[in-house]
Amino acid sequence: MKLLNIFKNQYFWLSLVILLAFAVRLYKIDSPIADWHSWRQADTASVTRNFIKEGFNPFLPKYDDMTGVSEKPIVNTLRFRFVEFPVYNIAVYPFYLLFGVLEKISRLVSVIFSLGSLIFLYLITKKYTSVVIALTSALTFALLPYNVFFSRTTLPEPTFVFFALGMVYFMDRWIWESASPWLGIWAFIFTALAFLMKPWAAFYFLPLFYSVYKNTGRIWPLPKRFILLTVAAIIPFILWRLWILQQPQGIPASSWLLNSDGIRFRPAFWWWIVSERLGREILGVTGLVLFFIGFIQKPKNSSPRGAGNYFLHFWALSLFLFFIIFATGNVRHDYYQVLFAPIASIFLAYGFINLISGSNPYIPRIWTIVLALWFFLLTYYFGWKYVSGLYQINNPVIVEAGQRADQILPKKAVVLAPYNGDTAFLYHINRPGFAVVPLSIKEMVADYGITHFVSVSRDDKTNWVIRYFQVLEDNPKFVIADLTEMKKPFDDILDPEP
Question: What is the arithmetic mean of pLDDT over 224-246?
Fold first, then answer.
């Protein structure tokens, strides 16, 4: 029996893959936001929570941090959070209204978007390869440990990948099936939302120019309808950027993402991207081998409009371009490579099926099958050995201290919660304030209305607060103090440096 016949009922197998993907993403779904990249997850989750606390206004998203994080740091007392348009937060909001503010709800919304991404990935891959490779790609996307972890975080990335893949799917179909106006409408919606969330959508858009070339037989001029739809879909992003420029203190610094430390093309850059990210965290050594085996394969004659359609290859190359252009960002933050997970899954599956089929003329098929299965299994083993540590709650005390502070502090409290700038501590306290101490505490109380101090560190700053202010809670793990109630007059000028 041919391999294809085993997968004859493709949608049955796809449904099983979706159920499996959902099941593995339930692992630690109720974890508090204190795991890997908790600061970024907390910033995102606090926007949705503040929709509940302060009113729903997606054009003025707010988080808990009042620290200046813009290019020219300005204290952000209004707590604006102007990064991506809050599409993910808008999706979570109704569930918070129904079930309350629960982290597992926001994680489940990310999971749902990830399952939608899996479906788009399958449809795109089937068009350019085969049902077998498409199902294997979906299975890889479903189980890749790196992708599983980030698919259940409270980051906007899972939602962005869903809309970006939807953009690729509908735009590509619209290019080839221009007679359908509905495809154009869906292409516009998904493209507009993808760019509103992340300008990185441009790196998913590049292969669509290749589709235009394959469809029309020329690179220039581009079809007018393609230009019009593209421009119309990008206009909402431009309007959003113009809008947020009115409040620059709410726009985090981003120029450093390009090459602020000069790492691009240096040996350290290749070590981080190829060895650490691709070769360990995302694909593992064996997965990277399968990926490159798949990548070097020539497209089959069954591809759209005859042989030699390199759409998937152009897509992969555009992601490599993303790594290079945003060199520092990709080196410092592993969640940036979530964009790479779909195309990584496709070519890993392509390489796996190539070995299974025994198309190599130099190695007997029995050995290529063994190698394929061994490499495939080791990919998940190596990935899990690395990624399992990301689920760990790095400092459970911030959760405990935050919950206690939330219980005893006034609802309108403004807190100073020094934690090396990590806003996850602020998130658990559930109050606005500062995660660093940029000025003396006396100045912060006077200038910014700080009312309370919460610390999980017994440093000189904390001991100074205990000395002069009323302590509400003092135990070996954390300290909560009321900065509006002094125990005695100051006998020194300034509190010590942190």
Answer: 94
Please state, in angstroms and as integers, the Cα–Cα distance from residue 141 to each residue in 18, 35, 55, 239, 256, following that order.
10, 22, 37, 34, 30
Q: Is the pLDDT of residue 182 over 80?
A: yes
Contacts of 419 (CB under 8 A, 6+ apart): 398, 425, 426, 435, 456
Query: What local confidence, expressed as pLDDT, does residue 180 receive?
Result: 80
Answer for the pair 432, 404: CB distance below 8 angstroms, yes or no: no
Tell whether 31 is covered by a domain: no
For residue 238, what are its two tokens? 């431009």
**What are the structure tokens assigned to 404, written together?**
């206690």
Is 212 a residue whose pLDDT tops 60?
yes
Rounded Cα distance, 106 and 48, in Å = 9
The answer to whether 134 and 122 have CB atoms below 8 angstroms apart is yes
Structure tokens at 395: 């400092």
Residue 4 above 80 pLDDT? no
Higher-pLDDT residue of 455, 7:
455
Of the candidates 343, 270, 279, which has an alpha carbon nearest to the alpha carbon of residue 313?
343
Question: What are the tokens at 258?
Answer: 């390009």
pLDDT in the model for residue 362? 66
Span 199-209, average pLDDT = 93
Amino acid code (one letter) for 2: K
What is the Cα–Cα distance from 128 to 90, expressed in whole angstroms? 34
Q: Which residues pair with 260 in a beta bridge?
A: none
49 belongs to a structural domain: no
For residues 357 and 235, membership in a common domain is answered with: yes
Query: What is the C-alpha to C-alpha distance for residues 284 and 484, in angstroms, rounded to an integer?
Result: 54
Number of domains, the chain: 2
pLDDT tens for residues 343-386?
Answer: 999 999 999 998 888 766 667 777 788 888 999 999 999 999 99
Residues 81/250, Cβ–Cβ less than 8 Å: yes
359 and 408, same structural domain? no
Domain containing residue 311:
68-390
- 327 has pLDDT over 60: yes
Domain boundary among 357, 390, 423: 390
Whether 256 and 190 share a structural domain? yes
